[in-house]
Amino acid sequence: MTMIFGVPLAVFMGQLMLGLINGAFYALLSLGLAVIFGLLKIVNFAHGAMYMLGAFAALLGLQTLGLNYWLALLLVPLLVGGLGMLIERYMLRRIAHLDHLYGLLLTFGLALIAEGTLINFFGVSGSSYPTPTALQGGYNLGFMFLPIYRAWVLLAALVVCLGTWFIIERTRLGAYLRAGTENSALMQAFGVNVPQLVTLTYGFGVALAAFAGVLAAPLYPVSPTMGSSLLIVVFAVVVIGGMGSILGAVLTGLGMGLVEGLTKVYYPEAANTVIFLVMVLVLLVRPAGLFGKEA
């Protein structure tokens, strides 16, 4: 039996794959947070709730409307992203001139309302979402068994993350977004509708969380608490990568997933805290994060 550092190869590769899957979700969620904070300076504590709403919308759409997985993957992010746009337009915009702490408190309150409401109707026990027929099964690679759905999640997350990075960093629209946050008065003088850009950006960041929720539904139990249990870890990932850094969110999310997966192999007791230990070390050495810009 092939061993890697005293661990069977199949076990090692299996945990590595699980780490990459967790890292894909960390990357998607931290990317949404980085987009919202980096461009709008909003600390969005409702992000985990939007992830949870994405999973619930897919599940309820299947149970009540017969909405299949592929349609849910397209429609649910649009629906939840629209909800995010309403939140920005009618709530966050009213306190945009105040300290960032007020935005944090508002979004935290919204997250508690969403979680409490769903707990009241559905309880805390999780529900299962069936894996799409086309993505069931897996491949035996010899050194490990690769489930098709897990490979799809990793591929979809990478495509969305890299596409988002390209749009923000390499297109005219991304340039408008960055310029609008730096000097909104100047951009409006050039005829750019900056408030509308802000609303669309917040909606897009929320849609990324909902997209991750639909991807997660066949893998994890769909429950009202699934977002809150993940949010703190995702915030730690964002801090490690650098608040507002798009590339940092993606690379750090995948990297921390791998670190967490390997820790489960060699020292399982530290698996739940290793990301926070890394965060403390990074803050001590580089307070702006690995990819963040120093003030």
UniProtKB/TrEMBL annotation:
The UniProt GO MF terms for this protein read:
transmembrane transporter activity
InterPro entries the UniProt entry points to: ABC_transp_permease, BCAA_transport_permease
Kindly report the protein's main subcellular placement as a broad class: membrane
- Compartments where found: Cell inner membrane
- A Pfam family this chain is assigned to: BPD_transp_2
Mode of membrane association: Multi-pass membrane protein
Q: Which GO biological-process labels does this protein carry?
A: amino acid transport
Q: Any stretches that span the bilayer, and where are they?
A: 20-40, 69-88, 100-123, 143-168, 197-220, 232-258, 270-289
Cellular component (GO) terms are:
plasma membrane
For this UniProt record, give its keywords in alphabetical order, as a comma-separated list: Amino-acid transport, Cell membrane, Membrane, Transmembrane, Transmembrane helix, Transport
Give the highest taxon in the source lineage.
Answer: Bacteria
- Family, similarity comment: Belongs to the binding-protein-dependent transport system permease family. LivHM subfamily.
Query: What is the protein name given in its UniProt record?
Result: Amino acid/amide ABC transporter membrane protein 1, HAAT family
Q: Which organism is it from?
A: Halomonas korlensis
